[in-house]
Amino acid sequence: MDWRNNEMISISTSWMGSLPESGLRNWLLRIKNLGFEAVELSYKVSHEQLGEFECLLPEVGLKVSSIHNFCPTPNDEPSPRHASNYYRLSSLEEHERKQGVKWTNIAVDTAKQTGAKVVVIHAGTLDFEDERSPELFKLYVDGQKDTPEFEAEKKRILDLRAEKKGPHIEALDRSLAEICTYAKREGIKIGLETRYYLMEIPNFEEIGYFLDQYDNDVMGYWHDFGHAEMNSRLGVTPHKKFLETYKHRLVGVHIHGIKGRRDHLAPFEGDMDFEQFMPYLTSDIIKVVESKPFASEDLMKEAVKKLS
After folding, report:
1. Cis ω for the linkage preceding 279 (within 30 of 0)
2. Under a CB-based contact definition with an 8 Å cutoff, are residues 10 and 66 in contact?
3. pLDDT in tens, 141-186
4. Distance between CA atoms of 152 and 132, rounded to whole angstroms?
5. For residue 2, is pLDDT > 60?
6. Residue 58 burial (C-beta neighbours within 10 Å; 0-12, 13-18, 19+)
7. What range does the domain containing 290 cover?
């Protein structure tokens, strides 16, 4: 499918949660009735579900906009991590790094066989402490953003990140070189996604570094509105700076609302002024609503109307 001049709105299967009691076919009919015309197959899609999607999507009349790594969910080894970070492409453990490359290439295969053109990736994380930075986020949630304690903790994290990132960037460089070689051969583009936590890769500057390594037909920037907004709220990088700087490489977006630090709400829900970003939703990018199951059906239907 050619997504140029695209006005269709896609929805991530993350809104589905686990397999709905009514069955996958009924869920697909439900999202079609809401006005969605495509789906992004996410990292929670199992091998069995992937087979079901491939059979049902043409029958229901929905297309696949994109694939979110890893899809299908890896099933060869257990992982203690969130499914979207099942294996880390930036890992200093060579076995894990190679597993990440292997399963990202499998996601490329998934994209090719389903007609998607982009695989969205979480590129990596620095492993030396809890990447969720619990103390920093506790201070933020407690309303302490403007305190010396918050600034000190943020500075500590960013300084430590700068000191330790080198080997992880080098590992990710190797992984992306292998993945992009394979993806280019298969005619699939890699979408480098904005990250939420400060310890994750890439940060604002690193997005530019990696995009400079590859042509636009191999890699593009995938903007996540909730993640970029959290960067802005923490005082790291202003939200619009991501879009203004990388709009020439923008291939797709994850659209969802955010309130405080809780993201993946329905689009336009929460306390982010999404209207200011609407001009960036041009016809040549893939638009995926990436809300979680707690987003109400009424708000999702309203979002489709506003985005269409």
Report:
1. no
2. yes
3. 999 999 999 999 999 999 999 999 999 999 999 999 999 999 999 9
4. 17
5. no
6. exposed
7. 9-129+164-307
Q: Collapsing DSSP states into helix, strand and coil, what is residue 178?
A: helix
Confidence (pLDDT) at 1: 38
Is residue 203 helix, strand or coil?
coil
**CATH code where residue 296 lies:** 3.20.20.150
Coil/strand/helix, residue 219? strand
Does a structural domain hold residue 150? no
Cβ 56 vs Cβ 26: under 8 Å: no
Residue 282 tokens, joined: 């041009």
How far apart, in whole angstroms, are the C-alpha atoms of residue 71 and residue 63?
Answer: 16
Look up the pTM and report it: 0.95
Average pLDDT over residues 91-99: 97
Which residues fall within 8 angstroms of residue 45, CB to CB, at 6 or more apart? 13, 53, 71, 72, 73
Q: How many distinct structural domains can be found in the chain? A: 1
Distance linking the first and last C-alpha atoms of the chain: 19
Instruction: Determine the residue type at 292.
Output: K
Locate 59 and state its tokens. Answer: 């029958």
Structure tokens at 152: 């000190």
Query: Mean per-residue pLDDT for 81-88?
Result: 87
Residue 283 Cα distances to 6, 12, 307, angstroms: 5, 19, 11
Residue 157 is assigned to a structural domain of this protein: no
Please say whether the beta carbons of 171 and 201 come within 8 A: no
149 in any annotated domain: no
Instruction: Say if 139 falls within a structural domain.
Output: no
